[in-house]
Amino acid sequence: MGKSLHSSPARSRRPIGVFDSGLGGLTVVREIRRLLPAEDIVYFGDIARQPYGIKSNEQILRYSIENVLFLLKKKVKAVVIACNSSSSAAFDFLRRNFNLPVVDVIEPAAQCALRMSRSKRIGVIATTSTVASHAYVKILKRESPSARVFQTACPLFVPLVEEGWREKKITEAIVRHYLSPMKKNRLETLILGCTHYPLIKNAICRVLGRSVRVIDSAKPTAEKLASLLLEKGLLYAAERRGRLKIYVSDLSRNFVKVGERFLGEKLRDLEIVRLK
Amino acid sequence: MGKSLHSSPARSRRPIGVFDSGLGGLTVVREIRRLLPAEDIVYFGDIARQPYGIKSNEQILRYSIENVLFLLKKKVKAVVIACNSSSSAAFDFLRRNFNLPVVDVIEPAAQCALRMSRSKRIGVIATTSTVASHAYVKILKRESPSARVFQTACPLFVPLVEEGWREKKITEAIVRHYLSPMKKNRLETLILGCTHYPLIKNAICRVLGRSVRVIDSAKPTAEKLASLLLEKGLLYAAERRGRLKIYVSDLSRNFVKVGERFLGEKLRDLEIVRLK
Question: What is the pLDDT of residues B152-204, one digit of tens each?
Fold first, then answer.
């Protein structure tokens, strides 16, 4: 009975829920739409309370729970935490306490980095809160105790991306300032531990050189989601382009420009909601 | 009767309330403590919901009202909006609807700039939301219709100050990027329209040259507050050092370091509160 229920179209056509503190999570949505084009997606960007990366774990957990409750009202079949700060502060709680598949961005990126790396010398760059949480270090060490992990917080990268300075000299100078000290660690792999960072990947690669493999969480997260949905009988595959509905808790001034940069397509279906 | 009530010590010894989206407002507190050392001050920094500068006016207004309600519970005798984004979005509403003196940071800085400027060629640098609100332009034009006002948003200045990069080459490069185009305007005066900016005043002065007078709102705001308190019979002067109590709605990672940089003294009496 469970089986026929799982594979019933009524169940599996429900949307995938994705949330982030802002718009960076749209880099993950982009990959989900590439991998699972038929799926409908409901995205929630908590612009009114962003950024999460400078806040306490307790606060981030509270916000994350509220975001999931909002997505549940939209009848999502799974939740993707498309935010590193939320993933580090709330993934365990959400996975344990909600009765639906929950995917974060940290575990898939960490596992991907381990697969890609022979020497297991892995760098992680992220916001202050993600670095302080040691979330990447813990998971990399758990899965591969011999791994050497080198972390650096890069607080200016998010405002830099939001400002749209992707290929300026100043961008490269700032990237160099944060990453040059990492060169001595002889990294094999670098994890971009923030969903904003893929947009300055070029500058990062130029500074670190071609020997370092740079990994962002978007693709591994989409793959992890696909395999979980498949396993649970929730995957919806069809010859159609799924709908993407975007909710935000506030409108920032240059929302559309920034959002389309992350998503790589036009923002069409957009609505402001006020969370309690 | 009104008169004796106004000058009664019981009334005037109540604290002054100051709020900001974060810690930048402590630059204003610093000047208030310099000018009115005997006064007690209750400060509220809404770290949980900062930064305001990227949010909508409606959102900023709602937050500002909640902040004033919090300060009123602390029995403040006056409120200082030590935040430009709040000042532009909420000053009129707060002044009209609350029954106590309210001082913002925009009007005092604008009036000071007009007093200091003969040619009335005035530059304003601020966050995106303050620039978009045209708050400085409106008030400068109202008080001096012949004034020429040139605005520029500098979104990276706040994260730069929070990161503590005050005298780095990169700081000067970023300042140069935003301010070089303003040189052609032959400014006589530049208003720092954000309470974070005084901390990179040196770099700003170096880029603009010594002919431009740079004004920040802290001192004129403290003076405006003093004259309002005096007028209302609420001023408290005595041979004592007033108490500074700081409430924040969350703890950011490097709160103490950043806060002490703004305040210019040790943060002693600090408490976290959760607003509803």
Answer: 999 999 999 988 888 788 999 999 999 999 999 999 999 999 999 999 999 99
* CB–CB contact B162 A155 (8 Å): yes
Last residue of a domain, one of B216, B232, B254: B216
Among the candidates A216, A232, A263, a domain finishes at A216
The pLDDT value recorded for residue B166 is: 84
Which pTM does this prediction carry? 0.84
Which amino acid is present at A22?
G
Domain count, chain B: 2
Residues B113 and B212 in one domain: yes
Identify all chain B residues contacting A63, using CB atoms and an 8 Å cutoff.
none
Chain A CB within 8 Å of residue B89 CB: no
Buried b (16+ CB within 10 A) or exposed e, B39-49: bbbbbbbbbbb
Could you give the CA distance from residue B276 to residue B271 in angstroms, rounded to a whole number?
A: 16
Q: CA-CA distance, B194 to B83, in Å (whole number)? A: 7
Kindly state whether residues B63 and B86 are assigned to the same domain. Answer: yes
Contacts of B203 (CB under 8 A, 6+ apart): B166, B167, B171, B172, B175
Report the residue of chain A nearest B174, measured CA to CA.
A170
- B54 and B130 in a single domain? The answer is no
Cβ of A276 under 8 Å from any chain B Cβ?
Answer: no
Alpha-carbon distances of A266 from A18, A236, A247, A270, rounded to whole Å = 18, 23, 15, 11
Chain A residues touching residue B155 (CB < 8 angstroms)? 159, 162-163
Q: With CA atoms as reference, report the closest residue to B107 among B220, B229, B198, B212.
A: B220
Domain extent at residue A250: 2-104+219-272
| Sign of the torsion angle spanned by Cα atoms A164, A168, A172, A173 | negative
Is B112 among the catalytic positions?
A: no
Q: In the A/B pair of chains, how many CB contacts fall below 8 A?
A: 69
> Does residue B102 belong to the interface with chain A, where contact is any CB pair within 8 Å?
no
* A125 and A170 fall within a common domain: yes
Residues of A (45-64) whose Cβ lies below 8 Å from B: 47-50, 54-56, 59
Is the confidence metric ipTM above 0.85 for this complex?
A: no
Q: What is the pLDDT along chain A (276 residues), one digit of tens a residue?
A: 344 434 444 347 999 999 999 999 999 999 999 999 999 999 999 998 888 877 888 889 999 999 999 999 999 999 999 999 999 999 999 999 999 999 999 999 999 999 999 999 999 999 888 898 899 999 999 999 999 999 999 999 999 998 888 878 899 999 999 999 999 999 999 999 999 999 999 999 999 999 999 999 999 999 999 999 999 999 998 889 999 999 999 887 678 888 999 999 999 899 999 876
Q: State whether A24 and A98 are in the same domain.
A: yes
Please say whether the beta carbons of B86 and B52 come within 8 A: yes
